């Protein structure tokens, strides 16, 4: 391990500015990304696939939704290389520009009746671009946060970028709730476009924040080492060669926070409106209430991770999600407004327990020289699986003649994967590598920052 002198310890002001930029930038990225999920459930099936019957159009809409997740590993490879070779900050600036521009352009797209098959083709292309961006966003924000901050606080600090998810949901669902008050003719003609066009303004704000953050002290020390010894030629290939087993564990551990979330938000909106004939405003309001519950759970679970250990919090959250899967859907199936909101909130709150601490679990598994590539690939392979969840859920509901038991079993399977992966990332991995393994020893920059 190199003995390169570490950069100066970040000041408390630097850390506060970094945390604010990580949170706000991630919230705006997720606003853009989740906006598509809501529109896929409510708008795109009608405007971009009007020639299909309603059930098939919904599935087609979710196929374009899943395209963004298929693109995420490509983004992970691209931005992982940039982040490991040229800096975490450089990667994050590019991701936010790509996301904001892609989302804003969706708001400008003509529909199927105007340009025919080009409409869904362009929609899928822009969704693919969104996926490329998200492929590098989460890992970069998490690494910048944890590589600047003390290790004993990694549980709570890793939860701060995670708050971007419920805040992004609040912003996107809130935007759709506002335009959803328009008459249907106005909503489908132009109202749905407004939240997408707002992404251009949000992009300017997010870019301003990203330009002001400092580069990770760990990366600065790595760059000094690379100037003397030479950089890793292909960080992603090296990550697969050295850590492919850990990457699989990371995929399993992260699966519930992504797949479970989209099951209980994106798919449930479609399930409630299409299968249960619940008003779209009720389903959107349910996701808003769930996002508020998620914020509270993430804060509490992050603090618990500092005391208990991040892997324990993630494993407990996975087990708890298994237990509430059927009750959550039973509540939604009542069609009673209050119980529907309770069911969605209960499900989202419980799956948020592992989501809060997953950043500390996954980033702690990999050596810093290939960390961006390894973390990004592991998390975004979980994202590929997560993006397919609404599509699989729609198929299972069809097989069950509209009943929710198949979807509840799917949630149980996802939660069991996360509980198992979180445990494997804990004691078994530490025993295999050993406490003195080079990849468990701190880089001098980390030791300096956490002293």
From TrEMBL:
<keyword id="KW-1133">Transmembrane helix</keyword>
<feature type="transmembrane region" description="Helical">
    <location>
        <begin position="56"/>
        <end position="79"/>
    </location>
</feature>
<feature type="transmembrane region" description="Helical">
    <location>
        <begin position="313"/>
        <end position="332"/>
    </location>
</feature>
<feature type="transmembrane region" description="Helical">
    <location>
        <begin position="282"/>
        <end position="301"/>
    </location>
</feature>
<protein>
    <submittedName>
        <fullName>MFS transporter</fullName>
    </submittedName>
</protein>
<feature type="region of interest" description="Disordered">
    <location>
        <begin position="431"/>
        <end position="451"/>
    </location>
</feature>
<feature type="transmembrane region" description="Helical">
    <location>
        <begin position="338"/>
        <end position="362"/>
    </location>
</feature>
<dbReference type="InterPro" id="IPR011701">
    <property type="entry name" value="MFS"/>
</dbReference>
<feature type="compositionally biased region" description="Basic and acidic residues">
    <location>
        <begin position="433"/>
        <end position="445"/>
    </location>
</feature>
<feature type="transmembrane region" description="Helical">
    <location>
        <begin position="402"/>
        <end position="425"/>
    </location>
</feature>
<keyword id="KW-0472">Membrane</keyword>
<feature type="transmembrane region" description="Helical">
    <location>
        <begin position="247"/>
        <end position="270"/>
    </location>
</feature>
<feature type="domain" description="Major facilitator superfamily (MFS) profile">
    <location>
        <begin position="18"/>
        <end position="430"/>
    </location>
</feature>
<dbReference type="InterPro" id="IPR036259">
    <property type="entry name" value="MFS_trans_sf"/>
</dbReference>
<keyword id="KW-0813">Transport</keyword>
<keyword id="KW-1003">Cell membrane</keyword>
<feature type="transmembrane region" description="Helical">
    <location>
        <begin position="374"/>
        <end position="396"/>
    </location>
</feature>
<dbReference type="Pfam" id="PF07690">
    <property type="entry name" value="MFS_1"/>
</dbReference>
<feature type="transmembrane region" description="Helical">
    <location>
        <begin position="91"/>
        <end position="109"/>
    </location>
</feature>
<keyword id="KW-0812">Transmembrane</keyword>
<feature type="transmembrane region" description="Helical">
    <location>
        <begin position="18"/>
        <end position="36"/>
    </location>
</feature>
<feature type="transmembrane region" description="Helical">
    <location>
        <begin position="190"/>
        <end position="211"/>
    </location>
</feature>
<dbReference type="InterPro" id="IPR020846">
    <property type="entry name" value="MFS_dom"/>
</dbReference>
């Amino acid at each position: 391990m190199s003995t390169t002198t570490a950069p100066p310890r970040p000041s408390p002001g630097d850390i506060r500015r970094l945390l604010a930029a990580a949170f706000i930038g991630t919230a705006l990225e997720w606003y853009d990304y989740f906006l598509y999920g809501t529109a896929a459930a409510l708008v795109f099936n009608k405007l971009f696939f009007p020639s299909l019957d309603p059930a098939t159009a919904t599935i087609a809409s979710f196929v374009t939704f899943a395209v963004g997740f298929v693109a995420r590993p490509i983004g992970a490879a691209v931005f992982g290389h940039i982040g490991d070779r040229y800096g975490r900050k450089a990667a994050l600036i590019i991701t936010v520009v790509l996301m904001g521009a892609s989302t804003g352009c969706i708001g400008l797209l003509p529909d199927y009746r105007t340009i025919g098959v080009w409409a869904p083709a362009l929609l899928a292309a822009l969704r693919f671009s969104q996926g490329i961006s998200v492929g590098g966003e989460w890992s970069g924000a998490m690494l910048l946060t944890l590589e600047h901050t003390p290790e004993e606080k990694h549980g709570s600090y890793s939860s701060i970028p995670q708050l971007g998810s419920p805040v992004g949901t609040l912003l996107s669902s809130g935007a759709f709730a506002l335009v959803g008050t328009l008459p249907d003719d106005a909503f489908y003609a132009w109202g749905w476009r407004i939240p997408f066009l707002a992404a251009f303004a949000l992009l300017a704000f997010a870019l301003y924040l990203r330009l002001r953050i400092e580069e990770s002290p760990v990366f600065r020390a790595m760059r000094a080492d690379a100037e003397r010894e030479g950089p890793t030629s292909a960080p992603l290939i090296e990550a697969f060669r050295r850590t492919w087993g850990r990457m699989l564990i990371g995929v399993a551990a992260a699966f519930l926070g992504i797949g479970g979330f989209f099951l209980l938000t994106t798919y449930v909106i479609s399930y409630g409106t299409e299968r249960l004939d619940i008003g779209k405003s009720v389903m959107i309001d349910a996701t808003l209430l769930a996002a508020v519950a998620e914020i509270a759970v993430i804060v509490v679970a992050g603090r618990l991770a500092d005391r208990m250990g991040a892997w324990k919090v993630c494993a407990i959250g996975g087990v708890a999600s298994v237990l509430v899967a059927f009750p959550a859907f039973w509540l939604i199936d009542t069609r009673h407004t209050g119980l529907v909101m309770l069911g969605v909130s209960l499900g989202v709150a419980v799956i948020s327990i592992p989501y809060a601490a997953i950043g500390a679990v996954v980033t702690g598994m990999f050596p810093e020289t290939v960390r961006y590539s390894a973390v990004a690939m592991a998390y975004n392979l979980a994202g590929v699986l997560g993006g397919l969840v609404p599509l699989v859920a729609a198929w299972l509901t069809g097989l069950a003649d509209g009943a929710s038991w198949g979807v509840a079993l799917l949630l149980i399977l996802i939660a069991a994967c996360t509980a198992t992966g979180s445990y494997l990332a804990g004691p078994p991995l530490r025993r295999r590598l050993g406490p003195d393994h080079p990849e468990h020893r701190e880089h001098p920059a980390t030791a300096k920052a956490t002293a």
